[in-house]
Specification:
This protein is an alpha/beta fold. It has helices spanning about 20-30, 45-55, 80-85, 105-115, 130-140, 155-160, 200-210, 230-235, 245-260, 265-280, and strands at about 5-10, 35-40, 60-65, 75-80, 90-95, 95-100, 120-125, 145-150, 165-170, 185, 220, 240-245. It has 10 helices and 12 strands. The longest helix has 17 residues, at about 245-260. GO terms for molecular function: NADP binding; shikimate 3-dehydrogenase (NADP+) activity.
Length: about 280
């Protein structure tokens, strides 16, 4: 569709803060594809009704909280990856038929690779929602062990089903976790939910630096606004490395544009062009 205009929107609640409109307009501008893209408030339970009323007016939607799991109940074609991780962030219309996809995982991995991180021994994922499922599914290919710290055991089974290769464990939430055994921590919780964990950071990083493999874990915080989070600030103050959630937003948006356009995109070239725009918007 390189010579065609397209119309999209990000759906969720709240979305007034979303950088997705800026991101998608910037990506498609680089691709020389005219695009109309906006943020639309759709609350939990409202996705089916919204799609029925608006499906003829749009070419694709980006889905954010709280719709990533709700989307699986739609009567649309569902990508096998979405079935496995039970989470989706992209709805695309092709020849009048809608299909459901997830680009969160590839966005997460591309962001890690861009920062020079490709393989991990042991990873701790904070949170057990839709984003956590996509992250766990992506980590299955690059981590030996994956642990999830969640507040309810009811999500354990679906998270474990997203893993086919790595060793998986589900841990009940603790406000004083030990980060020492891990070389990557991924915070997928809503803004503010992980603030209480900040008190555990300094001791864990100090112990990590004294360990035999002098391993200092990387924190990947999927939140990008407000930034820095309390957890990220404490991690940085303790000498640790932090990857901002805007990187995942950037790369998953490029992956969505690849699906929509049908083109094979140069992720790094696009990321280098668009990253300064996102950084400026976040200041």
């Amino acid at each position: 569709m390189s010579n065609l205009a397209c119309k999209g929107a990000v759906l969720g609640s709240p979305v007034s803060h979303s950088l997705s409109p800026l991101l998608h307009r910037s990506i498609f501008s680089q691709l020389n594809i005219p695009v109309s893209y906006q943020a639309i408030e759709v609350s939990s339970g409202g996705l089916q009704s919204f799609l029925e009323k608006n499906q003829n007016d749009y070419d694709y939607f980006s889905l954010t909280m709280p719709l990533k799991e709700e989307a699986l109940s739609l009567d649309v074609d569902i990508d096998p990856l979405v079935h496995r991780i039970q989470s989706a962030n992209t709805l695309i219309k092709r020849t009048q038929k809608w299909s459901l996809h997830s680009t969160d995982g590839i966005g997460f991995l591309k962001a890690l690779e861009s920062s020079g991180h490709r393989k991990f021994n042991s990873v701790l994922v904070l949170g057990a929602g839709g984003t956590a499922r996509a992250v766990v599914g992506a980590l299955d290919d690059v981590a030996e062990k994956i642990s999830v710290l969640g507040r309810t055991s009811t999500r354990s089974a679906v998270l474990e089903s997203a893993v086919t290769r790595a060793e998986f464990s589900y841990l009940r939430w603790s406000d004083t976790p030990d980060f020492t055994p891990y070389d990557l921590i991924v915070n997928t919780t809503p803004a503010g939910a992980a603030d209480v964990l900040a008190n555990s950071v300094a001791g864990s990083l100090m112990q990590s630096s004294k360990s035999d493999n002098h391993n200092r874990a990387v924190l990947f915080d999927v939140i990008y606004m407000p930034w820095p989070t309390v957890l990220a600030s404490r991690w940085l103050d303790s000498g640790g490395t932090v990857i901002n959630g805007s990187e995942m937003l950037l790369y998953q948006g490029i992956a969505q544009a690849e699906l929509v356009s049908g083109q094979n995109l140069d992720y790094e070239a696009l990321a280098n062009d668009i990253r300064p725009i996102l950084i400026s918007a976040l200041k």
